[in-house]
């Protein structure tokens, strides 16, 4: 499920559709007013149903060889919640997580003056099904938002908040500002220019995961063949012959 503003949601729908061309199923929900990150669990209650849930912020970029392994590890959660820890040079500018040697979280602070660790919490979270009811009980903060930190602290109080550390080989980029967007674009361009493949080509991923066939991938490439992106997709088809 993709959650966005009334203005932007139609653009995502035009771009991605219902996901069927990728062998997936996409749904959409409009957040009428900015009510905070944790509002996603309230808006997505029917979508979540009785399942566990992963929340990823749309302006965060994750890239690394071990990313799939890390996500598969996190999704095996049975109870509680998992946040991730990413080492940063200047922890003052981030939400900071403190944890013990068993990776049990001790505290989470938002942009602390005296950080208790150098591990920031990126916009990637895994929760059990309790999260929906927890989010409903969160009182809006001074800025009128249902804060994700309040949800995480609720799990912390239950002693059910755990952390997985993202290593030095993992890239985490925040594109929420023009500067952040530029840095992310330069990073992706460098990888693509050097290695010759596209970063997070969703059509390629769907094909390699077996969600669509080679012929379906070819059809997508043919529809985009006037672009470099389409030519890249067609090159995948030819390489697989």
Overall pLDDT level: 93
Main pleated-sheet profile: 5 strands, mixed
Residues in helix, %: 25-40%
Individual helix count = 10
Query: What structural class results from the helix and strand content?
Result: alpha+beta
The sequence of SSEs as H and E is EHEHHEEHEEEEEHHEEHHHH
Distance from N terminus to C terminus (CA atoms, Å) equals 34 Å
> Which residues sit in consecutive blocks of at least 5 with pLDDT less than 50?
none
Number of strands: 11
Question: Shape, please?
Answer: globular
Beta strand %: 15-25%
User: What Rg, in angstroms, do the CA atoms define?
Assistant: 19 Å
Topology summary:
Elements: E1 2-4, H1 9-16, E2 28-30, H2 39-43, H3 45-48, E3 53-56, E4 60-63, H4 67-74, E5 81-87, E6 95-99, E7 105-110, E8 119-120, E9 124-127, H5 130-137, H6 148-157, E10 161-165, E11 171-174, H7 178-195, H8 202-208, H9 214-223, H10 228-239
């Amino acid at each position: 499920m993709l959650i966005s503003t009334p203005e932007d949601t139609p653009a995502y729908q035009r771009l991605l559709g219902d996901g069927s061309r990728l062998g997936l199923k996409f749904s959409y929900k409009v957040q009428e007013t900015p009510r905070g990150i944790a509002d996603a669990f309230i808006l997505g209650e029917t979508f979540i149903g009785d399942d566990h849930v992963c929340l990823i912020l749309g302006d965060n970029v994750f890239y690394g060889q071990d990313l799939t392994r890390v996500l598969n590890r996190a999704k095996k959660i049975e109870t509680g919640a998992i946040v991730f820890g990413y080492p940063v040079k200047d922890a003052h500018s981030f939400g900071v997580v403190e944890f013990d040697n068993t990776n049990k979280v001790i505290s989470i602070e938002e942009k602390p003056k005296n950080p208790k660790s150098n591990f920031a919490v990126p916009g990637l979270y895994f929760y059990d099904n309790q999260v929906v009811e927890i989010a409903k009980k969160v009182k809006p903060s001074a800025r009128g938002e249902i804060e994700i930190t309040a949800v995480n602290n609720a799990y912390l109080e239950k002693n059910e908040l755990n952390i997985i550390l993202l290593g030095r080989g993992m890239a985490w980029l925040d594109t929420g500002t023009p500067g952040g967007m530029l840095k992310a674009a330069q990073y992706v361009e460098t990888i693509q220019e050097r290695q010759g493949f596209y970063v997070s080509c969703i059509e390629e991923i769907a094909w390699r995961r077996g969600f669509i066939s080679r012929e379906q991938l070819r059809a997508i490439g043919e529809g985009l063949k006037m672009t470099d992106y389409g030519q890249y997709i067609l090159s995948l088809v030819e390489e697989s012959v």
